[in-house]
User: Fold O-fucosyltransferase family protein from Gossypium hirsutum.
Amino acid sequence: MMLTNLKQLMFSLKMKRKKRERNNILLHGSNDICVELNRILWRKRHRIFSLVSFVSGCLILLLFAVSVFSPPPAANLLFLPPHYLARKEIAAVESNAVFQVPTIGGDLDRGLWSTSRSKVYYGCSNASNKFQTADMKTYPNRYLLISTSGGLNQQRTGIVDSVVAAYILNATLVVPRLDQRSYWKDASGFAEIFNVDRFISSLSRDVKIIKELPLKEGKPWIPRRMAVPRKCNERCYQTRVLPVLTKKQAIELRKFDYRLSNRLETDLQKLRCRVNYHALTFTDPILEMGKLLVERMRMKAKHFIALHLRFEPDMLAFTGCYYGGGDKERRELGKIRRRWKALHASNPEKMRRQGRCPLTPEEIGLMLRALGFGSDVHIYVASGEIYGGEETLAPLKALFPNFHSKETIATEAELAPFSSFSSRMAALDYIVCDESDVFVSNNNGNMVRMIAGRRRYFGHKPTIRPNAKKLYKLFMARNNMTWEEFATKVQAFQVGFMGAPKELKPGRGEFHENPTSCICETKGTETIQKETQEEDHENDNNGRDTAEVNDEQDPIEEDLDWIEDDYSDNIKDLPDTDSNVLTKQEQPEVEELFSD
Assistant:
């Protein structure tokens, strides 16, 4: 029994020992497995860490490259017009208002290349049944001669008005004598610029016109020379001029420009239009060269702008305007200004506030871009010497790289017959400006007024006159606003200055600029009436809104040009005598300098 128990005890101990050894083997195996698992996990963690580090490094390099080579967020707006931007984007930029000019314009389909309602209006200048013809009213041995003054377009006003003056006086008109001694120094005669035969024949029913004054008793006839006041009306001619003409039979009215009132009876106004828009044409060589220039512009683009840019040193000196050129500008222009002793002391700030300073080339470019014309638009520039040269023109050329002139689109040989004569060169510019899709100016001189009136008569083609009085303040403050704000205000200020029908009240401005007596409205077409009813209402509202602006902007009757302001103030109405002596106040250069 005892032995049996001992065996069982030994067997039990043996089993426990085997069990312990088995557990030790299992524990050792588990430790080996754990160690191996740890090694595997460490390798995977190392690979993941390496991958993450690589990806992070790549992202850092990518972000660095983007920050270095990409433009700042606001710069991207340079290439988008304001109306393409989302409101949220605009709001984000407005927090740091920056004046950034877009390279493209707006929607040109909204009518910038044409004038709304132009098809409703047309030029009409036929005489009424009450208008007496030349053969019924012309007195024998009554001859009127006139001598014009100034540049081509100022002379044109004198030629037009001389026909009406001859009609009022029942006289035969001798072909006008052009000014050959003025600032412009052009020796061309009437027949070298205008088609004299057409001029005579086209007006044969209205006024008798001859080329030369006939002999008197076999001797040259010396006419009595005299002057008439500016804006002389029909009664003025009958009381001041007619008695002298009746007595002397031949008189010459000197310095004949703007010597006829804007306010005449309708038939006399229509006679003005027949002369200006039908009878007075350029010679064939000038017309052919002008047509060639227009064709070459059409080859470059379907539509083009013609810009009459006056920024000559003499003109800037006379106006007394200042454009930020510092002492150099003041010294240079001041020296030129001292040539005119009768000029009052200049007040540049006042002139600018009153809108009497021509816009700079850059300001014209900004105005056009704000109105919707992009950098792809082609511009023909009619200008003389630009103060500051290429440096002054650079901002305009940057805005509109397609920049042309007669010198760039024609060869020197083609221009040779005209280049020595300022009036003939001006006539070429006149033709291109008249035929352009849009005509723009930075001034309100004679050429601008003559072309504006012609474009109204022949279909109200877009003619943009800067509202300089309003734009001045806007240009001064442009760096404190966004482009969208600037463009919106420009478009608002230019309402009433774009060449649309009924922009100007009848009788406002020069008749040559606003020939309302010669503009008729199509009637009897129900479709047109319906189409324009709403536009007429809108135009009436705009007219009321802009009437005050136009009244402020348009020069008063006596303010014929920058030059005329001084001239009118200093020249007294001369008596009806034959005095050939210029008074001290009559300085030829002053009256002619800006008479383009």
User: Anything to note?
Assistant: Residues 190 and 290 are 18 Å apart (CA to CA).
